[in-house]
Amino acid sequence: MHRADPEDERDGLVIARPDGALVHVRLRNFSASDLEAIRAIHGRRWVPERKVWTLPNTHATIEALTEAFGPRLLLGPEAAGDRGRGRAVGETGQSTPERSGEPRPERPPETPPAGSDILDALSLAVRTREYSPKTERAYLAWARRFLAFDPSLTEPGARLDPARGKAFLEHLATDARLAAKTRNQAASALGFMFREVLHQTGFESVPRAKGPRRLPSVLSHREVLRVLRELSGDHRLIASLLYSAGLRLDECLRLRIKDIDFELRQILVRDGKGKKDRYVPLARRAVDALRTRVLRRSEVHDEDRSRGQGWAPLPGALDRKDPGAGYELGWQFVFPSRSSSKDPATGRTGRRPLHPTAVQREVKRAVRRAGVDKRASCHTLRHSFATEALRGGCDIRTLQHVLGHKDVRTTMIYLHVVEQTGFYVRSPLDRPDDPDDPDDPLWEVDPRPPRARRPSDRLGTITPPDGRDPTR
Q1: Domain coordinates in residue numbering, the chain
Q2: Is 28 helix (H, G, I), strand (E, B) or coil?
Q3: Which of 73, 227, 397, 401 is the most buried (most CB within 10 A)?
Q4: Catalytic-residue membership of 199
Q5: One of 166, 379, 391, 401 is an active-site residue; which one?
Q6: Active-site residue among 348, 351, 382, 383?
Q7: Is there a catalytic annotation at residue 416?
Q8: CA-to-CA distance for 330 and 343, rounded, in angstroms?
């Protein structure tokens, strides 16, 4: 009998710390087939901080691991289907209920996790519902802060109560004095935890805070040009795309080469906010710079491929359907990081997207150097694009599609911004003449000089031809 040890050096797989909700799996000297077996299990998640895989602690998971790894699998205590001391599957003298002919024992009822195990269960619930990584990080941060608010919650056997969640929100409002939008985010995180992880009701009745209605800060066209002139290289090109296409910073940094259509002058935004794809315009003035950037990116990719690198993470399950697609040039990021790194999920080396902090820092410095006194950031360029589009005559529905807003009321905010900064509607007479008939202008100027006004004209009366006064 072999007890599972997280520091075991045997070749195979170790379940480091099974509990009531998750199974922590660590691979030793793994191969590509081992990774495929782990990734084929539903609900698996890679935790880079701990360098372990987390799987649901269910009988189906244990059976899938046993079938895939056999005697190489080391089970720790409290694993589903192996309640007891740790052992190696397949050791002599060990028999499962199926092999001995005994009936399978009934699975004990699941109890809600307590203490630090809530974080693992919360992370699994968020990933199972395919929420964005930012949402996962925000929910986990609020869960940690909630557990730190009441130290008794981390004790073994502690049970969470929605009343404690309400007390935590009151603490954020009265003691921490956080903004209403921040408190509402905390309420959403705790509501998800109580509803989906702890399966408790009663937290839905907590009222949401109503904050002030603020308008976004925008820059004029001349101010944006002054900021762009203070940038250089990739930072200028990224800022130009944010302003010319209304992209979010993360969407711009995750652009791939195949997403850019130079012929139709449009950009495909993949998996944007809300997991929606959309097309945005590509400015004519940005085409040459973007072509040069793609050409330079292809040269760097050729150098990476010569060193056995050049892997780019693929969306969804495309890496399993087409294992070599990640090495293709079309799937490479337009703005990659300077150095290559190993993908912990696949074990392949490539370049990740450029970190947004680097661009944000350079844009803020450019705003100061340009002498712009407004509070501006990368997202301000997106706001400026929306206001300039409305001033140019773009209708609200088209702008909603380009910006990727789910609700048109979010786009309507920019109408209030335009009203405050000078709203106008372009008259049809201000449009250029018909290019197909340039000899027939819409408005002709009379070459004759204006006639001199008579005294009666200045007085506003009309003198009839017979000289009679019409007022008498």
Answers
A1: 12-93, 117-197, 221-431
A2: strand
A3: 227
A4: no
A5: 379
A6: 382
A7: no
A8: 19
**Catalytic choice (17, 139, 243, 414):** 414
CATH architecture for segment(s) 221-431: Orthogonal Bundle (1.10)
344 HSE (CA, 13 A, CB side): 11
* CA atoms of 120 and 108, how far apart (whole Å): 20
Contact status, residue 250 vs residue 287, Cβ threshold 8 Å: no
What span, in angstroms and rounded, lies between the C-alpha atoms of 368 and 462?
64
Q: What is the pLDDT of residues 351-394, one digit of tens each?
A: 999 999 999 999 999 999 999 999 999 999 999 999 999 988 89
Q: How far apart are CA 202 and CA 166, in angstroms?
A: 10
Q: Residue 383: which of 220, 141, 269, 268 has the closest Cα?
A: 220
CA atoms lying within 13 Å on the CB side of residue 110: 16
Strand partners, 53: 25, 46
Q: Each residue of 392-419: pLDDT tens digit?
A: 889 999 999 999 999 999 999 888 787 6
- State the catalytic residue, choosing from 273, 352, 364, 401: 273
Active-site residue among 17, 183, 248, 256?
Answer: 248
Quick check: is 276 catalytic? no
Q: What angle do CA 299, 247, 275 make, to 5 degrees?
A: 95
Q: What's 228-267 look like in SS3?
A: HHCCCHHHHHHHHHHHHHCCCHHHHHCCEHHHEECCCCEE
424 is catalytic: no
Q: Residue 103 has what pLDDT?
A: 46
The CATH superfamily label for domain 117-197 reads Tyrosine recombinase, N-terminal domain (1.10.150.130)
